[in-house]
Amino acid sequence: MFASIGENTVYISSGENTVSVSGGGYHVSFTLPDGWVYRVGEEEAEYNDDDGKPSIYLWPPGGWDHPIHILCFDRLALNPGTPYMPRVGKLGPDMIDMDIGRYGHIQSGFLPDGWWGSFGDDAEELFASLKVDKDLPTEGEQTLSVRGGRFHVELPVPDGWRYRVETNEEESAFAPVTIDLWPAGHVAEPLEIICTTTFLSPFPTCVPRTDIELEWEEFHGQDWDVIYGYDFRYVTLLNGGSHSWWSEYHTEATRIINSMKISQGLAGEEQIVYEAVWNVGLPHAETRVSYDEGSAVWTVIVDDIYRVTLDDKGKIIDSGRICPDDFSFALTWNAYGVSSYDSATGKLVKTTDATHPEDYAATHYIDEKEAGRIWQLIQKLDVESYPDVYDPNPGVTSKPPMTLILTVRTADGEKTIKAEGIAITDEAKDEKGQRFLDTCRAIREILTDTEEWKALPEVEFYYS
Length: 464
Prior knowledge:
The chain is α+β, with helices and mostly antiparallel strands and 464 residues long. 17% of the residues lie in helices and 36% in strands. Mean pLDDT is 77; it is low at 1-14, 43-50, 80-88, 171-175 and 199-233.
């Protein structure tokens, strides 16, 4: 139904209905709640380029003094280089100011107290249904070719069908290509094809793609309806209202889907890290990344607990904990009253040269992160390449001398390197000796940074 306000004609919803407005190459669609009012007007001067783009005002029942405005414009064209985000801004309770995709914006003035409490649920449903996009017709069957992010998508568009395309050129984990397709006359009821390199949590479990006849019942009634996996590329088919025409255009729609071709470029470091941290369930963890050009393999160390290897397209090769379950170690260091630690018992000793040595002992069991860091250090050292008795600086002495004893235990056996009576120095004569000194020092620094070590009293005796 419609009514007049001044010189303007407005349309009043009687029961929920879908509003569809096109103009100037843009298309706007949304579900108007029962009793709400809308009017199609002129664009504001800031965005008006005289091309007939839709400009829509909306009111809830009785809310004439506080209209909501939907505008159409190409955000990336106005602000080149601006990162695209699908829905960014403020949605209630005191105002509305939100981007809708690349091509739209919805805004209001300040809303009075009680407005959101009365109309907020309806407003949120309206905004969830709102789409602003480009409307591109076809002339005869054509092959649509779209590049965006790391994707290249090709699919046939039958004669008379329409399509909209939205891409994000950012080389990021969230770099989708979205293609809406619909037969003529069904602009507000598209079948959405979404391609993304990431597996986002709102999606259901991915299933392998098979070239089968798709029946609407397979994905009717779900929010995210069907996901087809292309190796590490994902395609989501989303019901945007296409059930209304599915039975009539089933054959053409199925041919489009089964003819779709997707290729994916090489993954960048950001994508590699994203896949690694989500693989081990630590999305906010610290990471270290390396790439082996010879094998084209990425390695990501996640929080010093996990090691994940991936190929150059971002597919997981291997994933697991860095430190084996059967690993333990012991380290003795210092001069005179030596310090020591044994991870098998957790005993941590600051010094043995004290009036009451028992006051200088504590218990500390290394956590997964500490174990991972220490295991990586020991792996780089290659303890089996060292003799049982070792001096990193043969022929060099100091008074007092220093002791370094490192023991490594795994299921394969036990290895101890004893460096007793050696010179107190952090420098060695050769690379092998330097690696031994650096490894022992790094392990010592991890142990002396623990709360248990810091809580022990200061040593009684110092020697010069």
